[in-house]
Here is the input.
Amino acid sequence: MVMAGVGLICGSLALDMRRRKLVKQVIGYGRSESNLKTAKKKGLIDSYFLRPEDFPAGVDFLMMGTPVETIVPLTLAFLPKLEPGCIVSDVGSVKGEIVRGMEKILPKNISFIAGHPIAGSEQWGAQAARENLFVRHRCVLTPTKKTDKQVLNKVAQLWRQVGADVDIMDPDTHDQVLGVISHLPHVLVYALVNALNRTKVKNVDLKSYCAGGFKDFTRIASSRPELWRDICLMNRKALGRSLSDYIKYLEQLNRWIADEKGGLLEKEFARAYETRAQIP
Here is the structure.
């Protein structure tokens, strides 16, 4: 199989597949040879290539783990070398545009199963790969009417074998869900950290006063900026709706604080406390 983009997700997947003897050979692809050398040294891959035209023969599975904006065009670059029966999948955080793009470019004899393991972190690169990353985490697969059910079952079984709980969801519903639970929090955290950076309080370095709460809440601001730029743009409709709703809610809280509506604030905070307690 070929892993295009050997980072935290695909690197961890390759590691678990090799440990469980689910794959005979893993070949890596990427733009950074140093990262691929790290992946090979860690035993994530057997070999690698750096140019799409060097895509190897006999590949039966291609996993796309590159940034979301590159998944469709890179698959198109690989297409002349893809053989009939090859299964293509991905781990992108946005599904709608990717699914529609893949169904346009792939012939009927090459199946695409869109997927998203919800198990990432702010770390990236082959050095971040680790065993059992997907255990007890969801992996969402987003088939369409054109999806081959037998191939879908094969990919679902692969994720179950590395410990993931598989959910089936349509692509646009996935994007709405992730727009709220993942993409919106990243935008909020980036904004919060930059607000801190722009705020001046006499000669105080505010960053030096950030303790556990702020650090825990803003951990994901350490994620790759270019990756999250692409995710925000590709899921702009769903994220835009979530962001607009959040802005309205913040404005409401701001009014209550200004008007000293302590009772309303306490009710809102209690509601949030109860909701947070329900999150597994």
Observations:
- DSSP finds ten helices and nine strands in the chain.
- The CA atoms of residues 157 and 166 lie 9 Å apart.
